Amino acid sequence: MSRPDILLGDLAMRLAGELDAAAEACHEVQALAAELATTGGATVAQMAPLQSLDALTQKLSVLSLVLLRVSQQAGDHRLAAGPLLDNIGLSDLAKRLEAGASTPSHRPGEADLF
User: Fold this and answer.
1) In which element (H, E) is residue 6 found?
2) Domain boundaries, the chain
3) pLDDT at 112 > cutoff 50
């Protein structure tokens, strides 16, 4: 079945939302890991890997902002949705990107389980 074309602005806005959700999930994991490390008596050296999680969270947030700006400037440019979305293994993500569905059946980034 052929997918209809998708407005670049709509796709960029949906991607920005996905990146925001991923950044929020990273932030939650970072807070939990820091709490567990602190209560478990972790040393500063043992907590150093949390810096990479912080950097990832920041990058996701910045990329989201860039895509939001792209969505505001995209105009009426359309993309063929099929080549973009046909091979996405996370079915909920593909549906959200194509149709803008706002209610995932599970947290963004989780693997589909059969």
Assistant:
1) strand 6-7
2) 6-99
3) no
